[in-house]
Amino acid sequence: MVFDVDHGAYGRWAVVHVTGDLDWTRSASLLDTVERLWDHLRDGCLVLDLGPMRFCDSSGISQLIRVFRGCQEHGIRMTLAAPPAFFRRMLNTTGLIQLFEIHETLEQALSGLDGWGPDANAAPASSI
């Protein structure tokens, strides 16, 4: 599975759009996608857009934790944007809600990032 990625101006941030199901058959692809971004995002921000996600199982949660830890190791701020209600319940139930920075919408997650907005030089979506 390939995730769409939007790159921000000057390589300071990227958005990975998590679409469909994040389950045991697809969750490893998330880590593969993000690992390709780590060297380019040092001291920047990774936003995981969860709005299009329909389902997530324990392997998906496990990969999100791996992504979070990898971001910490690389000095990258990680945020979750637009998590569906079912996913928020999972995070609350497991206590993982405290681990992640969460924004209600993708726009809110991006609002504090350098180079975002109508005049930004953001590259179009690409696939990794």
From TrEMBL:
Sequence ranges assigned to domain STAS in this UniProt record: 15-113
PROSITE patterns: STAS
CDD domains xref list: STAS_anti-anti-sigma_factors (cd07043)
InterPro entries given in the database record: Anti-sigma_ant (IPR003658), STAS_dom (IPR002645), STAS_dom_sf (IPR036513)
NCBIfam families per record: ant_ant_sig
Record family assignment: Belongs to the anti-sigma-factor antagonist family.
Protein name per UniProt: Anti-sigma factor antagonist
